[in-house]
Write a structure and sequence with these properties.
569 residues; 25-stranded parallel β-sheet; 44 strands; 18% helix; elongated
């Protein structure tokens, strides 16, 4: 028994000694790690200060306030300072219906410190920090300035030596203006301007875009890219004439027994308020054929010709000197004839349509009326008749109700906003009716084609309740026929103006068709007995609300590339 007790003492000493050694080892390891972490943090803090100083001095050089600056990096510990000329890329585009122009696409480059699992970098005029796992924050902001619908963006790019020592010299390489230049002028007239940054710091770039513009930012995580879009601000527009048409060189052909007059739906329907108070505006030519009765005024900047006989203009006529034979043709005009025709400018709505696409594709009320959406999307599918849509926002692949279909649009006192990606093409004998006092806005990406005996109507012939907004490079065709039962009755506005010399959406009205409202675009053909009845109530109705967009608005754009060279000093 005493022998066993004698053995326990040496074993206890060994255990105590082992515990002491283990504890000491743990203390040394933990302490060493703590010292290392502390040193890494100190090195990172030092690098942040150095990069912030680099940012300040590089800006002086990039923006032309200095030709040369020197920055002291100091000791880098286990890390070092380097330069990568191809790290990151900025792309700036301007998208309109005619295509997408690349304003600038440049590698940004970066000057960076890397050590202890942390990277501190100067890129695009800002300073960024990353832990290598995709977590990035901004330390100081880049050269991206947005205020009051003006974007000023001097894009700072860097090149130079790959390895930098304890100090670096910054010199100016070149400065090139990218916008405005040539035909690209301010104010920007339409479309979307996008700014995209591909970078390992893209999340921090995106956060800053959102902070500065208050707009949404799109992220492409697979490609480390953040994009912000700005919409060119639109001016408020109204429709002050039954026809606002064309550009230089276009021609309206008003064929036999065509009619133009007006009414005022705020007073009464067409039958009760019919009058002669409307006007046709055309920036191009107009041909009036046999027995055309234009009960209103004509303002034309192009050639005015009469073919055949018995044409009448009951209102005034304004023309450009040399484009009308007043001595021989003045007998057709009952009102005043004068020179100095001036057609009002209109604003293309392709940017607005793109905006509605972006919003309604991802945020819509389609699930509230699934049968209606399915029926409208495909002509051969009929899951409801009649079909109904109430106030809300909707995305449709197309609008193609089949023959004999009835569609009730019920905004009540609200609004139906409908983005249609494909064609708006009801088949023959389709009846579409707006019910209530609200408004229906159709934002149409492709063509408009109304089948024979199709009616789009409402109680009281109120054209201000139904609008189809169209891109300027599309077609709008109203199909009629030689017999009255085949005619199209359209109550509303077709709104597809052009831009500059672009005439706008091509609009044709077939035999016996009636439009109660107005057309804005390139009206080129009014067939026999085609009629346009201008609703004077449109003068008090906003076609486009000024600045109508959910994206940040843009009016002025100033873009330049400012290149700096960074080398060891």
């Amino acid at each position: 028994m005493s022998g066993r007790r004698g053995q326990s003492s040496p074993i206890a000493l060994v255990l105590i000694f082992a515990l002491v050694i283990g504890a000491t080892t743990v203390m040394l390891v933990v302490g060493g790690l703590a010292i290392t972490d502390t040193q890494d943090q100190l090195n990172a803090q030092s690098a942040e200060k150095a990069m912030t100083q680099l940012d300040s001095q590089a800006s002086l050089v990039a923006l032309g306030q200095s030709q040369r600056q020197v920055v002291e990096f100091g000791t880098a510990g286990d890390g070092d300072y380097r330069l990568n000329e191809t790290a990151g890329q900025m792309t700036i585009t301007h998208r309109t219906r005619s295509g997408t122009d690349t304003i600038l696409q440049k590698d940004l480059g970066k000057v960076y410190y890397e050590g202890g699992g942390t990277e501190i970098a100067y890129q695009g005029g800002g300073v960024w920090r990353s832990d290598g796992d995709g977590n990035a924050v901004m330390i100081s902001p880049p050269e991206f300035h947005y205020r009051d619908a003006t974007l000023t963006l001097p894009v700072v790019t860097v090149d130079g030596e790959n390895y930098l020592g304890d100090s670096a010299a910054i010199t100016n390489n070149d400065t090139q203006k990218a916008y405005p230049v040539g035909d690209d002028v301010n104010p920007v007239d339409s479309g979307l301007v996008t700014v995209s940054v591909q970078s390992e710091f893209y999340r921090a770039w995106g956060n800053y875009f959102h902070e500065r513009t208050s707009g949404s930012v799109d992220y492409d995580h697979a490609n480390n890219t953040a994009t912000v879009a700005l919409t060119v601000e639109t001016e408020e527009q109204t429709v002050d004439a039954g026809v606002i048409s064309g550009g230089t060189g276009t021609t309206i052909t008003y064929k036999n027994k065509g009619d133009f007059d007006s009414y005022n739906s705020s007073v009464g329907d067409y039958e009760s308020s019919n009058g002669e108070r409307g006007a046709i505006y055309t920036a191009g030519n107009i041909e009036l054929k046999n027995k055309v009765d234009l009960r209103g005024s004509l303002i034309a900047e192009g050639q005015i010709t009469f073919q055949g006989s018995k044409q009448t203009i009951t209102g005034d006529l304004e023309y450009v000197d040399g484009n009308f034979d007043e001595a021989n043709e003045g007998e057709h005009v009952e009102g005043t004839i004068s020179k100095g025709a001036d057609v009002p400018e209109t604003v293309a709505v392709d940017g607005l349509i793109d905006e509605k696409e972006s919003v309604l594709t991802s945020d819509n009320d389609n699930t509230t009326h699934p049968n209606t959406i399915e029926t409208l999307n495909t002509e051969s599918t009929r899951t409801c008749n009649p079909c109904n849509l109430t106030a809300g926002g909707y995305y449709l692949e197309s609008f193609e109700p089949g023959s004999g279909q009835t569609v009730y649009l019920k905004p009540e006192d609200g609004t139906i906003d409908m983005y249609v990606e494909g064609e708006f093409a009801p088949a023959d004998n389709v009846h579409i009716e707006v019910i209530g006092d609200g408004r229906v806005n159709v934002y149409l990406d492709k063509d408009l084609s109304l089948g024979k005996n199709t009616t789009i109507t409402n109680d009281g012939d109120d054209a201000s309740q139904f609008w189809i907004y169209m891109n300027p490079d599309r077609d709008a065709e109203l199909q009629g026929g030689s017999n009255d039962p085949d005619n199209v009755d359209y109550t509303g506005v077709i709104y597809g103006p052009g831009r500059g010399d672009q005439a706008g959406v091509d609009i044709s009205i077939d035999n016996n068709d009636d439009i109660f409202g107005a057309v804005v675009g390139n009206l080129y053909d009014v067939a026999n007995k085609g009629n346009i009845h201008y609703d004077e109530a449109l003068t008090d109705t906003t076609a486009i609300a000024g600045g109508e967009t959910t994206r940040p608005s843009l009016t002025y754009l100033h873009i330049s590339e400012n290149s700096v060279n960074v080398t060891s000093d």
